Amino acid sequence: MGRSRSSSSSSKWRYCNPSYYLKRPKRLAFLLVAFVCASLLVWDRQTLVREHEVELSKLSEEVNQLKATLEELKNVHGDSIKSITSKSSKYSQKAIHDDPIDIERREKVKEAMLHAWSSYEKYAWGHDELQPQTKNGVDSFGGLGATLIDALDTLFIMGFDEQFQRAREWVANSLDFNKDYDASVFETTIRVVGGLLSAYDLSSDKVFLEKAKDIADRLLPAWNTSTGIPYNIINLAHGNAHNPGWTGGDSILADSGTEQLEFIALSQRTGDPKYQLKAEKVILELNKTFPDDGLLPIYINPDKGTGSYSTITFGAMGDSFYEYLLKVWIQGNKTSTVRHYREMWEKSMKGLLSLVRKTTPSSFTYICEKSGDMLADKMDELACFAPGMIALGSSGYGPADSQKFLSLAEELAWTCYNFYQSTPTKLAGENYFFHPGQDMSVGTSWNILRPETIESLFYLWRLTGNKTYQEWGWNIFQAFEKNSRHETGYVGLKDEVVAEVAGINCHG
User: Fold this and answer.
1) 119 to each of 143, 154, 164, 357, 483, how far by Cα in Å?
2) Is residue 42 part of a domain?
3) What is the pTM of this model?
4) Among candidate residues 289, 305, 337, the one where a domain is terminated
5) How far is Cα 264 from Cα 16, in angstroms, rounded to an integer?
6) 147: part of which helix (H) or strand (E)?
7) Where's the active site on this chain (predicted)?
8) Are 252 and 151 part of one and the same domain?
9) Which residues are catalytic?
10) Which of 113, 167, 385, 477 has a CA between 20 and 30 Å from the CA of residue 413?
11) More confident: 93 or 150
12) Same structural domain for residues 201 and 310?
C-alpha cells in the first residue's frame, strides 16, 4: 500500500518536471499555446479594466470640478444659487449671469410654447396634430399622440408642471399602440420612442419607460430581414413589415440609420440588449461595404445591404444617417466600443468636403447633391442640420482639422441663415438652387416650420460663445411669430415669398 501511494504521488509531480515536456514535444507545444492564450485573455481584461478606470477617473474629476464650482457660487451668490438643481447645474449656473434681454426673450419663447400647447390641448388633445385654422385634430402618425409625446420633455424643461402632469395621465391611461396602422419605423422611433425616453430620463416616471418598451417591441419585426437592415413601414397590430412602393422595394438610408440612439438608450435603461443589437447590426452591415468617401445613396437594398443607384444628399432621406453616426459615438462616451461610428463619420465628412461649393458673387458655402458623377447645385433646408453636426464633431479632430471643420460649420450656418434672410417673410423655403453670378434662389417655396437651422445656431452658440448666433436665432423666431402665429397655434406657409398661409398642421 505504501508503494502504491508513493507511486501515485510521483506520477502527479512528474507534470511539474520540465524534462517531462522536453521528452514530449506535442505536450510542450500544447502547454505553450495554453499559456499564450491565458496571457492574452488576462491582458485583454486588464486593458478593458484600465480603459474603464480612465473613463471613471475623468468622470470623477468632472464631478469634483462641478462640485467645487457649485461651492464657489454658493459662497458668492448665497440664496440665489438654490435654484440650481443637480440635473441642470451647468446651465443654471450660466443663468446667474443672464442679462435682462436674455431673460425677456426666454419668457417670450416659453409663451410661444404655451400658446401652441394650449391650442393643441383645447382642440386636438390626444391626436397627432392640430390643424389651427380648422381647430381640428388629425392623426397623421396613426393616432399615437405624436405632438403630446414629442412635447413632454419641453414641457418638463420649461417648468410647465401642470401641463406635463396632464400629458402624463393621458400617456398612462389612454395611449394605446395596438392599432391596425402601417406606421413609419423612423417617424415612430424619433417622435414616440425618443419622446417617451426623454420624459423618462427627466422625470424617472416608469410609465414612460414601459410605454417605450411597448412601442419598440411592436417595431422590432421590421429588422427581420436577411441583412438586418429594416423595412421602413410596419403594422403596429400585426407586425407585418414592408417598404414603400415608390422606393422599388428598397429601404431609405435615413429611415434605416436613425434608430440607433433611441434603441441603444432603451437597452441601457431596460437592461434588455435586443433593441441595441437590432439597431447596431444595421451599422455593422453598412460598414462592411462602406465607401472611402463615406457617402451612401438614399436607397439601400435590405436583402443585399448595398446601395442602389440613387441620389447622394445631406438633405431629405440621407441627412440623419450621418448625424446619428456622430451622436452614437458621443452617446457611447467616445470609447473604443463605438470608435467605428466616429471612423465612419469622418469618412463621410471627407465625402462632404467633395460636395462643398461656393456661390458668386457673395461666396455662400453650400453642399451639393450627387447623382452618379454629376453634382446638382441644390441644397435642402433639411441639410441645415449639417453646420451644427460638423461643429459638434470638430473637437474630435486634431487642432488643424478641428479649426477647418469649425470654420466650415460657421460658413454653412451663414448660408442657412441667409435662406431665411433672403425672402420677404424672412422665413426659409424648402430648398434652394445656386447659379453662377446669382448666388441663390428659392426652389420649393413653402415653409413648414422646420427646426434644422435653429438647431445648428444653438450648437454654434454653445460651442463658440458667439452671441451672433443667438441674435440670428432670435431674428428667425420673430419671423415665425410675425408670419406663422395663428390665434390657435402656428401654421406653415404655402409660399414664403408672398406669405400665403397654408393649412399645415401644428405639431411638436
Assistant:
1) 18, 16, 15, 43, 18
2) no
3) 0.80
4) 337
5) 50
6) helix 146-157
7) 187 (proton donor), 319, 430 (proton donor), 452
8) no
9) 187, 319, 430, 452
10) 113
11) 150
12) yes
Instruction: Return the closest-CA partner of residue 364 out of 436, 449, 425.
Output: 436
Per-residue burial over 157-187, b if 16 or more Cβ lie within 10 Å, else e, is ebebeebbeebbebbeeebebeeebbbbbbb
**In what helix (H) or strand (E) does residue 421 lie, and over which residues does it extend?**
helix 399-421
* Residue pointed to by grid coordinates 438652387: 433
Residues 396 and 411 in one domain: yes
CA distance 160 to 349: 40
In a domain, 350, yes or no: no
Split at pLDDT 50, 70, 90, the class of 99 is: confident
> Residues 334-387: pLDDT tens digits?
999 999 999 999 999 999 999 999 999 999 999 999 999 999 999 999 999 999
Number of domains in the chain: 3
Q: Supply the pLDDT for residue 51.
A: 58
pLDDT at 276: 98
Q: DSSP E strands: which ranges in 416-466?
A: 431-435, 439-442
Give the mean pLDDT of the chain: 88
pLDDT at 156 over 70: yes
Domain extent, residue 304, equals 178-337
Closest by CA to 227, choosing from 306, 283, 304, 287, is 304
| Amino acid of residue 214 | D
Q: DSSP secondary-structure letter at 437?
A: T
Which residues of 156-245 form beta strands (DSSP E)?
A: 182-184, 233-235, 241-242
Q: From CA 387, how far away is CA 457, in angstroms rounded?
A: 8
Please, are residues 481 and 112 in contact by the beta-carbon 8 Å criterion? yes
Q: Which of 60-74, 146-160, 403-417, 452-466 is predicted least confidently?
A: 60-74
pLDDT above 90 (res 270): yes
Same domain, 301 and 389: no
184-207: per-residue pLDDT in tens? Answer: 999 999 999 999 999 999 999 999
Query: Is the CB of residue 368 less than 8 Å from the CB of residue 390?
Result: no
Handedness of CA 454, 134, 499, 317 (dihedral sign): positive
407 in a structural domain: yes
Could you tell me if residue 76 is inside a domain?
A: no
pLDDT band at 2 (very low <50, low <70, confident <90, very high): very low
